[in-house]
C-alpha cells in the first residue's frame, strides 16, 4: 500500500498530528518535498515536538525517510536528531534514512533569500530559509548534494567553482560576501556530513522493495496545495510541488503504485505570508480563530491570517490531488461561534463562479459568497464517537462531504493524538460521497 497525504489548503492543516496518528499503521513514512520551512507540531501527553524535516512517524517507531525531492538544511537536521535522542526517541540507521541526492541548503542560499526579500517592492513573505535558491541551484545544476558532504575533495572542488559567483550575487544584493562562508562553517558542514553518512540510503530502492514485499508506505508532503510552485497562487507560493503527484517524483516511485490519497482540511482556512485569501476575517471571529486555534507558524512564529473554510478552493484541491478521503482538523476551534460560515462560491466582476479563477490577480478580486451553518457551544475535545458530536458540527461535516463527494474519514477535535474521531465508514451519508458516483467538478 502506498498512501500520499497532503494539505488541501495553504499548509498548517495539522499534518504533523495526523501523520503521527496514521504512522502506526505503516512501515515507512517518507517526506517527498520542501525543506525546513515546513513545521509540524505533534502533542503526545505532556510532550510537544516541533519537527521541520524529519517525518513525525519517527515518534512512534515507524521508519522515517527523507527523499531526494527534499532540500536539506544539515544544521537544522542535526538539531532535530539531537532533540529526539535527548528525549528518548530512538534514531538509528534502521529507523531513519536520507537520500544522498537530497540538495543541501547552503549558507549562501539563506543569505540570498533574506537579501532578495528585502530588495523586493512587492513582498512574497518568504521564510528566508534559502529554499527557493536551493531549488534554483538544483535546476541550474549548481547544487551541493548530501552525498557531496561525504567526499571532502569533491565538496571543495564544487565550492571553489560555485563560491565566486555566489559572492558576486550577494554583493549585488547589498550583502557582505566576505562574511559569507568562513572556514569554520565549512569544517562544521563536513563534520555533519560525516555524521549523516551512516543514514544515507537510496530512498527509491528502499520504498519500491518495501512495496513489493507487501509493506505499507505513507508519503508525507510539506506546506499545502495552494503553495504549489505550478498550481498555487503564484507568486505567493513555495518553491516545490506540494500536490500528491509530486510524491512519485520526489521519492522515485511510479504513479501506478499509489493506492490512496488523503487530503487534510482545516475546519477554517489559514495562510502565512502574502497572497490572496478571499475569506480572510479581520474581525472578532478572525481573532477567535487565531486565539483558540493558536494560529502562529511553527517555523516562523508569524501570526497566521484566518478565514472561513473555502469550498471552491477545496474543489480545486480535490482535482489537483485526486483525494480519495478527507481528514478534517481543528473542528474544536469553531466551538462557541453562534454561526459558522462556509464560502460556497465567489463573485468576480459581477459574475458568480463556484471554482477558483486561474490567475492570482483575479483571485485577489474574488468576493466570497457564504452559506450559514448553526454553531455549537458545548466543548467537543472529549468526544470520540461521531454520533456524539453536536448536530451543528455533524451538519458542517456532512455538508463538506456533500459538496466534495468524498468521505471524511477522521475528525480532529484537539491537538493531542487521542483527540481524534475515526468516522464510522458505515454511517449514513450522501450517496455522492461514493467514489463510484463522483464526477469532476
TrEMBL record:
Entry keyword GTP-binding: yes
Residues at which IMP binds: 12-15, 37-40, 127, 141, 223, 238, 302
InterPro entries: Adenylosuccin_syn_GTP-bd (IPR018220), Adenylosuccinate_synth_dom1 (IPR042109), Adenylosuccinate_synth_dom2 (IPR042110), Adenylosuccinate_synth_dom3 (IPR042111), Adenylosuccinate_synthetase (IPR001114), P-loop_NTPase (IPR027417)
Pathway info: Purine metabolism; AMP biosynthesis via de novo pathway; AMP from IMP: step 1/2
Cofactor(s) annotated in UniProt: Mg(2+)
Biological process according to GO: 'de novo' AMP biosynthetic process; IMP metabolic process
Example of a GO MF term: GTP binding
A Pfam family annotated for this UniProt entry: Adenylsucc_synt
Enzyme Commission number(s) of this protein: 6.3.4.4
PROSITE patterns named in the record: ADENYLOSUCCIN_SYN_1
Catalysed reactions, semicolon-separated: IMP + L-aspartate + GTP = N(6)-(1,2-dicarboxyethyl)-AMP + GDP + phosphate + 2 H(+)
Main location: cytoplasm
Domain of life: Archaea
Keywords attached to this entry: Cytoplasm, GTP-binding, Ligase, Magnesium, Metal-binding, Nucleotide-binding, Purine biosynthesis
Compartments where found: Cytoplasm
Enzyme class at the top of the EC tree: ligase
Active site: 12, 40
Cofactor note: Binds 1 Mg(2+) ion per subunit.
Family statement: Belongs to the adenylosuccinate synthetase family.
Functional description taken from the UniProt entry: Plays an important role in the de novo pathway of purine nucleotide biosynthesis. Catalyzes the first committed step in the biosynthesis of AMP from IMP.
Protein name: Adenylosuccinate synthetase
Organism: Methanimicrococcus blatticola
Lineage: Archaea, Methanobacteriati, Methanobacteriota, Stenosarchaea group, Methanomicrobia
Amino acid at each position: 500500500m502506498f498512501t500520499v497525504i497532503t494539505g488541501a489548503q495553504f499548509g498548517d492543516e495539522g499534518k504533523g498530528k495526523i501523520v503521527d496518528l496514521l504512522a502506526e499503521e505503516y512501515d515507512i513514512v517518507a517526506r517527498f518535498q520542501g525543506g525546513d520551512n515546513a513545521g509540524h507540531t505533534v502533542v503526545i501527553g505532556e510532550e510537544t515536538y516541533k519537527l521541520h524535516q524529519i517525518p513525525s512517524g519517527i515518534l512512534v517507531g515507524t521508519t522515517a525517510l527523507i527523499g531526494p525531492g527534499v532540500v536539506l538544511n544539515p544544521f537544522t537536521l542535526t538539531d532535530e536528531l539531537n532533540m529526539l535522542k535527548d528525549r528518548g526517541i530512538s534514531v538509528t540507521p534502521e529507523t531513519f534514512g536520507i537520500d544522498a541526492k537530497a540538495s543541501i541548503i547552503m549558507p549562501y542560499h539563506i543569505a540570498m533569500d533574506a537579501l532578495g526579500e528585502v530588495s523586493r517592492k512587492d513582498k512574497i513573505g518568504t521564510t528566508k530559509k534559502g529554499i527557493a535558491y536551493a531549488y534554483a541551484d538544483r535546476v541550474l545544476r549548481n547544487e551541493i548534494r548530501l552525498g557531496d558532504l561525504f567526499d571532502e575533495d569533491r565538496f571543495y572542488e564544487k565550492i571553489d567553482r560555485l563560491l565566486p559567483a555566489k559572492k558576486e550575487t550577494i554583493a549585488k544584493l547589498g550583502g557582505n560576501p566576505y562574511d559569507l562562508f568562513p572556514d569554520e562553517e565549512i569544517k562544521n558542514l563536513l563534520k555533519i556530513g560525516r555524521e549523516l553518512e551512516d543514514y544515507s540510503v537510496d530512498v527509491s530502492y528502499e520504498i519500491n522493495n518495501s512495496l513489493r514485499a507487501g509493506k505499507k508506505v505513507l508519503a508525507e508532503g510539506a506546506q499545502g496545495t495552494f503553495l504549489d510552485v505550478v498550481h498555487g497562487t503564484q507568486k505567493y507560493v513555495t518553491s516545490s510541488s506540494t500536490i500528491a503527484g509530486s510524491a512519485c517524483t520526489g521519492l522515485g516511485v511510479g504513479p501506478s503504485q499509489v493506492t490512496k490519497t488523503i487530503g487534510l482540511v482545516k475546519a477554517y482556512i489559514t495562510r502565512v505570508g502574502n497572497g490572496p485569501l478571499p475569506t480572510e476575517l479581520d474581525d472578532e471571529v478572525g481573532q477567535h480563530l487565531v486565539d483558540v486555534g493558536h494560529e502562529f507558524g511553527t517555523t516562523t512564529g508569524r501570526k497566521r491570517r484566518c478565514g472561513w473554510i473555502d469550498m471552491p478552493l477545496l474543489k480545486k484541491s480535490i482535482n489537483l490531488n485526486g483525494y480519495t478521503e478527507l481528514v478534517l482538523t481543528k473542528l474544536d476551534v469553531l466551538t462557541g461561534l453562534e454561526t459558522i460560515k462556509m464560502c460556497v462560491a465567489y463573485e468576480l466582476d459581477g459574475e458568480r463562479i463556484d471554482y477558483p479563477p486561474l490567475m492570482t490577480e483575479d483571485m485577489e478580486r474574488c468576493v466570497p459568497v457564504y452559506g450559514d451553518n448553526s454553531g455549537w457551544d458545548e466543548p467537543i475535545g472529549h468526544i470520540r464517537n461521531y454520533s456524539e458530536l453536536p448536530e451543528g458540527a455533524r451538519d458542517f461535516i456532512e455538508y463538506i462531504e456533500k459538496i466534495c463527494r468524498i468521505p471524511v474519514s477522521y475528525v480532529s477535535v484537539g491537538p493531542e493524538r487521542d483527540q481524534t474521531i475515526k468516522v464510522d465508514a458505515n454511517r449514513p451519508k450522501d450517496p455522492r460521497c461514493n467514489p463510484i458516483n463522483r464526477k469532476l467538478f
